[in-house]
Amino acid sequence: MSVADGFRELYGAAPEGVWAAPGRVNLIGEYTDFNDGFVMPLALPHTAVAAVSRRDDGRLRVHSADVDQGVVQLDVDALRPLSDTGWAAYPAGVVWALREAGHAVTGADIHLSSTVPTGAGLSSSAALEVVTALALNDLYALGLSGRELAVLAQRAENAFVGVPCGVMDQMASACCADGNALYLDTRDLSLRQVPFDLAARGLRLLVVDTRVKHALGDGAYAERRAGCEAGARALGVRTLREVEYAQLSEALGRLSDETVRSYVRHVVTDNHRVERTIALLDAGDVRAVGAVLTEGHASLRDDLRVSCPELDLVVRAANDAGALGARMTGGGFGGSAIVLTEAAEADTVTKAVEAAFAEAGHMAPRVFPAVPSAGARRLY
Ligand code: ADP
Ligand code: MG
């Protein structure tokens, strides 16, 4: 059933419109967005699709075709951060953030369905937030830009849902463009669309969803964040973004804590890897990006220590089978990896990863191509 039909069945009238917002994979620049650094995500063809109508009576009704929970009924005046409304906290948090910012959102009926795998590090949560934000922006004629909607969606996730994420996921979902990667400076949210036409070059970027999510992920994220902040304080800078790559060894020499030192090394080198990737893409040398990805993985594994055996195995098996490079992507401790490969080798590489997983006794991974796709948009 289409999302519009689902809406009609639930709420007894056609929706005023239907919107879509994608999940994303991050090509390079990991754990850099909360350090004011650089990231380079691209939108996936997988989207959250929402059918939405306004209400003027303060009621907010949300329903997901993918969750067996019925319609969640809320009152926009009574929305409180960190009040547990389960999955509905994501769209409700967006309504809360819009109202907090002074926008007169007087209620909504929302029915949504998503093809973004959840909990796979592909930002199903940001897709949900951004599709809600864009729909309300259009319906209530708020006139907010994609960038402004992304920041409000991040605020919803941080303050209302209670997840301390950076702004990359929401910016990617809101601002990516078809056929491009998004070069984003998270300090001022300036961005550039970078043409990333893999097919024309005989290349493919594979997403390998390991389908595991290790429990230590949430605490580890907060710990890495705190460690990065400690590093910035020790170096007398506002954020690690201020540490130039050329000053890295001098900066590391001033840090006494071994853990903090390795976090700083990751952030500074990964920012540099984003800049190297941009230079390579601008020069048309897309194949050389592979080695940068693999280097980034080693940094996430050894310096930041956010990888896990399954992610390491994807990278090792893919590279052994002739891939151009690979790395974990997203928060780590499970979730997904990306693999850059010659298109002609994609099947060989995929089979090698699957065989390595079978041999190690891991669950079969889910592998699909990352086709750089459009950001959030109105469908009708
Ligand atoms: P990720 O963003 O990496 O997929 P998160 O843990 O940040 O993982 O977000 C996943 C959560 O988002 C789910 O647990 C659920 O609450 C919510 N979510 C995602 N997609 C849907 C959906 N289609 N319907 C309802 N809730 C969803
Ligand atoms: Mg998320």
List keywords for this structure.
380 residues, alpha+beta, Ribosomal Protein S5, domain 2, Alpha-Beta Plaits, six-stranded mixed β-sheet, four-stranded antiparallel β-sheet, 11 helices, 41% helix, 23% strand, binds adenosine-5'-diphosphate, binds magnesium ion
Spans of at least 5 consecutive residues with low confidence: none
Percentage of residues assigned to helices: 40-55%
SSE pattern: HEEEEEHEHHHEEEHHHHHEEHEE
For the report, how would you describe the main beta sheet? 6 strands, mixed
How many helical elements? 11
Total beta-strand segments: 13
* CATH C-level label of the largest domain: Alpha Beta
Q: What structural class do you assign from the helix and strand content?
A: alpha+beta
What form results from the Cα inertia axes? globular
Terminal residue distance: 16 Å
CATH architecture assignment name of the largest domain: 2-Layer Sandwich
- Tell me which ligands are bound: adenosine-5'-diphosphate, magnesium ion
**How large is the radius of gyration?**
21 Å
State the CATH topology of the largest domain. Ribosomal Protein S5, domain 2
